Amino acid sequence: VFHALEQSLQKMSGRDRYCCLMFDEMSIRENLHFNRSLTAFSTKEEMIVQYLKEVLDACQNAGLKVVATVCDMGANNVKALKLLGAFRRKPSMGIKSWIFLKDGKPPFLHPPPSQNGWLIDITAAQHVWRTLKDLGFEYLHTQNLNQDPLENTFGAIRLNCGSNNNPTGGQFVDALKTSIINGLALQNWGKLIVRMMVLLFWIIYNRF
């Protein structure tokens, strides 16, 4: 997969190689499947960190330039990002002063968790833009900083499992490989964002 990706990147300009890496979890049905290579791992967040490092190294070796990661605010994801050294930057005062109003009055004594999530997302987007602007970019499509392509990949995997909404680990691996062979990840450069998110799961589940 990375070899094919490296070949595709040779046809792309240096600017088109900048990307973000997405990761998420998917419901997998309980199934008895012993994998000796996984017996040495401990906590979930440590596994996420290990796989992220593997994917980032492989992407950089292939010629990609990852400027950000995209994930939800699940507890294990947050813990993993902290282990990687990520921290919450101080948001601008304009955003931090936002409040929720209901019938003209603040309905909450303390800011709801969703507001903290917004602060993190907006601050992160501002940081990504500053980074890209310094590299010569003139604009940033913030609509692309989401997990929709990843969810679409999950949909393709479920479809290849016979519309199975809760596949087993083995079925997930087979469906993912089928999707890759059918061209989900290896079409033109416009599919790069789809290709990126597939790589993480390829490394994780290719161990089965």
TrEMBL record:
UniProt domain Transposable element P transposase-like RNase H C-terminal: residue ranges: 145-175
Listed InterPro entries: TNP-like_RNaseH_C, TNP-like_RNaseH_N
Domain spans labelled Transposable element P transposase-like RNase H: 1-38, 43-85
Superkingdom of source: Eukaryota
Protein name: Uncharacterized protein
Source species taxonomy: Eukaryota, Metazoa, Ecdysozoa, Arthropoda, Hexapoda
